[in-house]
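Extended Data, panel c. Modelled sequence:
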Amino acid sequence: MVASGALITFVDDKSKAYNSELQEGDIIVGFNGENVRSIDDLHRLLTEERIGHRIQLEILRQGKLATIFVIPAEMEN
């Protein structure tokens, strides 16, 4: 079982960066095959080169492991 990850606490469905696959309460535990143990890991993996490209996330949702695909976008200020 996964011991840690990056918790999604808020999803803004009006944001340009919105991905309908992500839900509040999801815990991101993998990013394109790499482990995500913290928000620091997620920041390190989510590079500028990955913006606009489809990526695979492993998430825990309601205690079950799932794979989803998202396309990261830049946040608006």
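The chain has a mean pLDDT of 88. This feature is highlighted in the accompanying rendering.
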